[in-house]
Structures
1.
Amino acid sequence: MSRNAGIVTISHRLTGPRFFVAKDMSVLASLYPFIKPLLFKLDAEVAHTLTVKSMILAHKLGLLGSETPRKQTPVNALGLTFPNVLGLAAGMDKSASAVDAWGALGFGFVEVGTLTPRPQPGNPKPRLFRLPEHRALLNRMGFNNPGIHSAVEKLRHRRTKAIVGVNIGKNFDTPNEKAVDDYMHCLKAAYPVADYIAVNISSPNTKGLRDLQNEESIRALLGTLQKEQSELEKQHGRHVPVLVKIAPDLEELHIEALARVFNELGVEGIIATNTTISRAAVTGHPLVEQAGGLSGAPVTQRSTEVIAAFRNLLRSEIPIIGVGGIMNGKDAAEKIQAGAKLVQIYSGIVYAGPALIGDVLGTV
Ligand SMILES: Cc1cc2nc3c(=O)[nH]c(=O)nc-3n(C[C@H](O)[C@H](O)[C@H](O)COP(=O)(O)O)c2cc1C
């Protein structure tokens, strides 16, 4: 393989077809259209594990490109400078095992997790499904993760310039009355290594979790976390912003109530949205009865509506990270027009591959 004049040629020692990789496009992005049909023949979770492992290897071999040649327009938000507007959404790298690779692929930020105090296996398999006709995924992973302390150890050794957010949650067997203890545990553990912390109260796959979005519960939870955050700031001499990740399945009055609480408490940012429990966009599909959260194209519009609603209600200095069904650059631009300061992707990368990164960065 050789690199010259912005073109990567990986063919001269191969007898097969020649692949030319455009400038600013990683080798993986160019190969993805060939790899995707093979990956889609595998079980979705097996394909995911294989892809992440291959990416780590590709990064070690220097095949992912580097963070520097890509056009970067930095974004100042949360008191941080993000190398660019695009992040990897939570759930893709639950164990924080590939942050350097995601950075090399072109992401300006990577949100790892959701991480819980204790490691947990998540729900029984199968728990991740593709709905290719709808460019969607359905998952009920249930916070499978190696525990916050394992992720923190990995993050201590990271080398990427990408901003790293740590998304935290509660263990499945922690009752909601004690949820605050789990979030506190994770906040304290993640604080020294995180650039920001995302409080996940919106995954549909941990029983009762979304009840924490009730006005009283969220007020109590965030109030307690903010007090601890002030203590941690003194202890570590560094401010780490705390954000809240919310669901798309909120009614207007609920959005108003949440926005009121966020304004009153001075929440530093919100991430909108998680997956949806609505099946309206996939009626009649054989998987429609399966439990879990739906992501990808079916959530694009709703997530943009929720962003717009919060943008209208939140104090202007509170940034919104827009996520949900960004399948191309135009979807990302619409989220920014609706009021998102930064955007994240997950399902889109499964369908479009790493080329989506260039598409988004080239459009917004
Ligand atoms: C398989 C899978 C696992 C996910 N796990 C998490 C998670 O652990 N924590 C979280 O906050 N969001 C999780 N999400 C939600 C995504 O971060 C994102 O909010 C959602 O999928 C909508 O974005 P998308 O349409 O670009 O995928 C997960 C999504 C998928 C598809």
2.
Amino acid sequence: MNEVDAPRLAVRGLAKHFTLHLRGGARLQVLDDTSLDVHAGECVALVGASGRGKSTLMKCLFGSYGADAGALRFESSGGLVDIAAASPQRMIELRRRDIAYVSQFLRAVPRVPALDVVAQRLVDAQPLPASDDPDDASHDHRMNLARDAARALLARLNLPRALWDLPPATFSGGEQQRVNIARGFVQPARLLLLDEPTASLDAANRRVVVELIHEAKAHGAAVVGIFHDEEVRDAVADRCVELGRTPETP
Ligand SMILES: Nc1ncnc2c1ncn2[C@@H]1O[C@H](COP(=O)(O)OP(=O)(O)OP(=O)(O)O)[C@@H](O)[C@H]1O
Ligand SMILES: [Mg+2]
């Protein structure tokens, strides 16, 4: 296979189980020999009934869950890496520069305004300047540029301006989701993980998210998404991959 054809992400033989301590240590095999490829500029939608492991696969790709077996080969900006075997330090770097994850729920740092939740993601993704003193002028300058980009994205997502300087903890579900989406899209990613990004959005904002996904693909992102909304899925996905077997009934 030549380099042009090589997938951005190759999942091979991924297995993942959970041990349910509250159920006497019962073993729940969620993913078993899961494989899929995603190329740059392509969006693969994960489909399958509730509980089949769609979000679990996302969390393995983001390094939040370890894999029991298999490889998650990712063509990062620093070369090929197996996410399943990456060190925590390497995973932090990958998350900073290459992998964006829009989870269904925002986990924001308390007291940080919405604008900075988004802007900080952009600043974190940039290589540190010679001086890494956070008080220096170049840090302020980079943060101000990042805030401009964050404002543009929050405006596009129709988040009311009155909310930009407030921490998102008290925002409605749809408002929090838009901050989360802005944070995920503000920095071009090589791998974009979207777990039901439009679940709490109205039709107008769903259309904005569809546009953002198209733009990310055009920019060369490999996108793995879970979209319960079939209209959104049809609009953005190039292929669907069905996961897992029917979970055992208790
Ligand atoms: N941290 C965990 N500990 C124990 N069980 C877990 C954990 N995370 C997920 N599971 C279980 O793994 C199974 C798959 O969960 P997952 O969230 O991946 O499903 P899903 O396909 O995303 O479903 P949905 O469409 O409802 O979001 C479920 O039965 C869930 O209860
Ligand atoms: Mg899920």
3.
Amino acid sequence: MASCEMCGENDAEFLVQIEGAQMNVCGKCKAYGTVMKRAGPTFTRPAAPISSRPSPMPPQKERLLIIKEDFAEKIRSAREKMNVTQKDFAQQLNEKESVVHGLETGKHEPNISLARKLEKMLRISLVEETEVEATHMQATTDEVTIGDFVKIKKR
Ligand SMILES: [Zn+2]
């Protein structure tokens, strides 16, 4: 361990701020300034949140919005109930007729914003919220990223 930058006699155990400068000093000399942190064996290691140990956190849940599988049937029957042709419905939607045709035959899955529009117009429910556990793969990737970041910082 480095020796105290004030007296040079004892091991530097504390990082203190003395008149605007940061110095590593011993327990005796720390009284000359404001202690920033205690320098232990972990002194040069990154601060607490960055850790290479496996995270003890519970599996993370991710909320996902998905389109219901039977969207095509729902859209078609709701439109027919309203007595609107595909063409008219397309106009109301501000989409091409082929889009409506695609939706009703299941060839074209609506994105969430289109699905929300359809839900409002047809008074049906197309979007489903589901919770999935974040995959192990993602967690591992995150750790690697943090590790690499630490290595870069140390250089
Ligand atoms: Zn000292």
